[in-house]
Amino acid sequence: MHIAWATDIHLNFLNEQKREGFFHSISARNPDAVFITGDIAEAPSLRFHLQEMVDSIQKPLYFVLGNHDYYHGSISSIRNEINALCETNQHLTYLCGNQVIELTKNTAVVGHDGWGDGRLGNVEHTPVRLNDFRLIEELTGLEYTKLIDKLRELGDESASAIQQTLATALDSYEHVIFLTHVPPFKEACWYEGQVGSDDWLPFFTCKAVGEVLLELMQHRPSNQLTVLCGHTHHEGTSQILSGLRVLTGSAKYGAPHVHDVLEID
Ligand SMILES: [Fe+2]
Ligand SMILES: [Fe+2]
């Protein structure tokens, strides 16, 4: 089975011709399915872009959402809207931590957005302020300590959503692929070939999810867990444990591409 993986495609920055070009570049790789690890568009156009992409590629599309997908909207209403869209389209699957999808006899996929949960790096003194904090309804107008509390809540929500589902998947499949937007480990937070700086780490890693992955994989020598993520737009591979590998995909605004084609047994 061949799976085309792209991340941070930010389709709202492309005109129709460029979007078609990107969709054709996916189809040209002749995948059996497609993975997208978030930052697909922005809230007002997300539904349209997902529908347009799946109409063009005509293959099962498994995805999670990234922070940009909630821009000019709210996390709760977009999640509801996209879940409803997926119910009407058999090729579209939004992975929210409640499903184990079999890809082959040995391999399944699970996913959840994740969130930069303000736990790693220099959260107290960083001068970094993301557009998230003025463009996503749940994060706007919060005083800094309340904002960090909210980011932690979002990270914790993600961690608890996947905990049982991943355990179930690992019990039944030798290899599990976990799709998420935010790198779950500092080592996977690539920026120009190195780990991102302490000022960016709080918003570019999801420590809560990383802890769940470590706990699950520490005692499972016969399982392989492959994490696919994005968000930093810079690529890298990190081997966290012998059975736990994280691939962070590259991306460029205005020029989305298939980062990799995975061969699944
Ligand atoms: Fe992005
Ligand atoms: Fe992002």
List the helices and strands and how they pair.
Layout: E1 2-6, H1 16-27, E2 33-37, H2 43-57, E3 61-64, H3 75-88, E4 92-94, E5 101-102, E6 107-111, H4 132-135, H5 144-172, E7 175-179, E8 190-191, E9 194-195, H6 201-204, H7 207-217, E10 224-229, E11 236-241, E12 244-248, E13 260-263
Parallel strand pairs: 1-2, 2-3, 3-4, 6-7, 7-10, 10-12
Antiparallel strand pairs: 1-13, 5-6, 8-9, 11-12
Helix pairs in contact: 2-3, 5-7
Bound molecules: fe (ii) ion (FE2) (2 copies).
Q: How would you explain this protein's 3D organization?
A:
With 265 residues, this protein is an alpha/beta fold. The protein has one domain (2-263): Purple Acid Phosphatase, chain A, domain 2 (4-Layer Sandwich), CATH 3.60.21. The chain has 7 helices and 13 strands. It has helices at 16-27, 43-57, 75-88, 132-135, 144-172, 201-204, 207-217; strands at 2-6, 33-37, 61-64, 92-94, 101-102, 107-111, 175-179, 190-191, 194-195, 224-229, 236-241, 244-248, 260-263. The strands form 3 sheets. A 6-stranded mixed sheet has the order 5-6-7-10-12-11, covered by helices on one side. Strand 2 (33-37), helix 2 (43-57) and strand 3 form a beta-alpha-beta unit. It starts with a strand and ends with a strand. The model has no long low-confidence stretch (mean pLDDT 98). The structure holds fe (ii) ion (2 copies). Residues 8, 39, 66, 68, 231, 233, 251 line the site of one fe (ii) ion.
